[in-house]
Amino acid sequence: MGKIVSISNQKGGVGKTTTAINLASNLVDLGKKVLLLDIDPQGNSGSGLGLEVQSLHKTTYEVLIGELSAREAVQKTFVNNLDIIPSNINLSGLEVDFLGMDKKEFKLKDALASIKESYDYILIDCPPSLGVLTINALCASQSVMITLQTEYFALEGLSQLMRIISLVQSQWNPSLALEGVLLTMYDKRTNLANQVAEDVRNYFKEKVYETVIPRNVKLSEAPSFGKPINYYDPDGVGAKSYKSLAEEIVGKA
């Protein structure tokens, strides 16, 4: 049965989607079957894998409002054994659709119940917010991975995310665990990045991955070509870092 992991942080631009795409692709390289589920209305996980997401009508939105089953919304990608349920801007209206709806926090969990045994990992790319979409993701997941940019405001607002995780644990999903904290956009040449990394490791202890994701131009370029980094620049430092992360996660499983 697949392990469901949300990749979350209410801040934007901290490497959530980059991590979702590249971790998924590298887990496949390790022999795993992976589903990437995009629950961010920006739809960047789909476009980062070469899909024209704004023209799609089989997305996370249709699944959450009950028009499609999760299995009907699954799409193959060019990466063998990597499937995706994409999203697009339609998902931004979900808050209105859910007004007054009973048990709306469990819509994603219920939808995934029928397909989770088909995958080794289901990775959920969360939006940069702490609303109903992120809560649905956390209620459906066994664990949550936090991506943290190694810059000045990295820890600002993190207490709010931890409160939401605690709320979900106490009210809806008591088995939700912290999968790990991933340091992203790391530049070892700067004192600031090293200080932030030290602060995060002191706070989260062994929950911080040994692997860090460097600031890397190729990682930024790859989505515009619709490819994960291990296809776009397979010998580069970005590809090596996500390969290392995938190996670390599988090794801890």
Automatic annotation (TrEMBL):
Domain of life assignment: Bacteria
Pfam families xrefs: AAA_31
InterPro entries: AAA_dom (IPR025669), DNA_Partitioning_ATPase (IPR050678), P-loop_NTPase (IPR027417)
Residue ranges of every copy of the AAA domain listed in the record: 3-177
CDD domains (UniProt xref): ParAB_family
UniProt feature coiled coil, ranges: none
Listed PANTHER family: P-LOOP CONTAINING NUCLEOSIDE TRIPHOSPHATE HYDROLASE, PARA FAMILY PROTEIN CT_582
Protein name in the entry: Sporulation initiation inhibitor protein Soj
Organism of provenance: Leptospira terpstrae serovar Hualin str. LT 11-33 = ATCC 700639
